[in-house]
Amino acid sequence: MILDIKNTEYVRAVERVRAYTSPHNLKAHVMTFGCQQNEADSEKARGILSDMGYTICDDFRECDLILVNTCAIRAHAEMKALSMLGNFRAVKKKNPELIVGVIGCMAAEPAVAQKLKTDFHYVSFTIEPNMLHKLPELTLKYVEENKRSFILGEDKGDIVEGAPVKRDGKFKAWVSIMYGCNNFCSYCIVPYVRGRERSRASLTVLEECRALVSDGVKEITLLGQNVNSYKSDVDFPQLLEKIALIDGDFIIRFMTSHPKDTSDELIAVMKKYKGKIAPYFHLPLQSGSDSVLKDMNRTYDSKRYLEVAKKLRKEIPDIALSTDVIIGFPGETDADFLDTMKILEDVRFDMVYSFIYSKRDGTVAAKMTDTLDEATKSARMKRLLDTQDVISYEMNGLAVGRRERVLVESVSERDGEEIYNARTGTNKLVHFKSKENHIGEFIYVEIEQASVSCLLAKEI
Ligand code: 5AD
Ligand code: SF4
């Protein structure tokens, strides 16, 4: 069901929180771990906090309310968030009125919620994903009744529209088009913490994109855990086409796609609107071994994956491809790993994000026997990175001599000189010198040099 935030408890709660915040000029900070969806949710949280009367502040030590937006994808991400939370003990000592809230994927894990409740007495509440509109209510409960809240299982699969958003950037914007995941890849915790797939209505998405473009946004990134399985009144290729038809000088990106939903229609729309839709595709492989893919419940085999990758390269010849790979999934043999390496050499990805398997309680893979030792996992990781570095270097080298349209993102100083940072449509980082500040604009550069991770260019 689609709910308008105005028809929820939100409005009344915001009014009452304002009565608490307005006499004191209170400050709030939102800290983000994890993926782009979390970045987007944090912008929403900042919008809601501003509605509640808080001033958003960069330094958490000065704040009266701190939200930590957490990631649960791997154990390491969880440890980072918990150790950050540990720092707030001292802040709370100095400011006993401090409110600390935990949002994001960890907030939806029963074991984490329990740990926060018992071991982190200065955490005032947790809010599971998709329930951010509860922020004013839970803040109120804490300040008025001194009650901490660790509620789970409230997400009934609704979409709440109309939450305010305080965007970080002026010329780049995230637009979530779907939430949750139905795929249940056996290693992944996302479906358990972010719930089932639900897609926003295409009209609402279009309205948001039109408003962004007329505000001068130059790059819109459509977000979803499984973005290309978007399905409302239209499907993902149809939605992309509608957005591409919006008048204006902007580009569209999207992530993350699943190979099973990468249809011929999607590839055809990308080809048809190549100037508008960036020629870049992030297509997670996870493993090149058919038996591992089966155990991962990825629903495709290496042959199908290669077909999709090759079709993308054939239809959109200068497209850049990137992927995710998991190393050391339970039972991964040397031969399985070599199958992954073979696909990397075959597809020649522009960029590979590789992760060592991390056991997530509650997932199917957590019950599989995992006998692989750490040294073998690290050796495989090193071998993969070494091979991929050579490929990335060679792929980046193909751009040398080319004229590229780039979006200028920022400037940094190096040896007393201003170096501008920009991105090509293929999502490659470009550095160049310039006398003029073109941040937030598309300009043309000529690529002069390539390295493993970036390109050097001159303005033309
Ligand atoms: N262990 C390691 N990597 C994981 N990913 C998801 N779950 C796990 C896990 N349990 C990786 C996948 C996914 C990316 C976002 O994170 O490669 O595509
Ligand atoms: Fe996790 Fe698979 Fe869903 Fe991606 S598609 S979020 S890896 S379950």
Task: Describe the structure in your own words.
By secondary structure, the chain is of the alpha/beta class. The chain has four domains: 2-150, Methylthiotransferase, N-terminal domain (Rossmann fold, 3-Layer(aba) Sandwich); 169-260, Transcription Regulator spoIIAA (2-Layer Sandwich); 279-398, 2-Layer Sandwich (Transcription Regulator spoIIAA), CATH 3.30.750.200; 403-459, Beta Barrel (OB fold (Dihydrolipoamide Acetyltransferase, E2P)), CATH 2.40.50. It has helices spanning 10-21, 36-51, 75-94, 110-119, 135-145, 190-194, 202-214, 236-244, 264-272, 290-295, 302-315, 334-347, 374-397; strands spanning 2-4, 27-32, 55-56, 65-70, 99-104, 125-127, 149-150, 159-161, 172-176, 178-179, 198-199, 219-223, 251-255, 280-282, 320-327, 351-356, 403-414, 417-424, 429-433, 442-450, 455-459. The strands form six sheets. It has a six-stranded parallel β-sheet with strand order 3-2-4-5-6-7, with helices on both faces. Strands 17-18-19-21-20 form a five-stranded mixed beta barrel. β15, α12 and β16 form a beta-alpha-beta unit. The longest helix is centred in the last third of the chain and has 24 residues, at 374-397. The chain is globular, with a radius of gyration of 23 Å. The mean pLDDT is 97. It binds 5'-deoxyadenosine (5AD) and iron/sulfur cluster. Iron/sulfur cluster is lined by residues 181, 183-185, 188, 190-191, 225-226, 258.
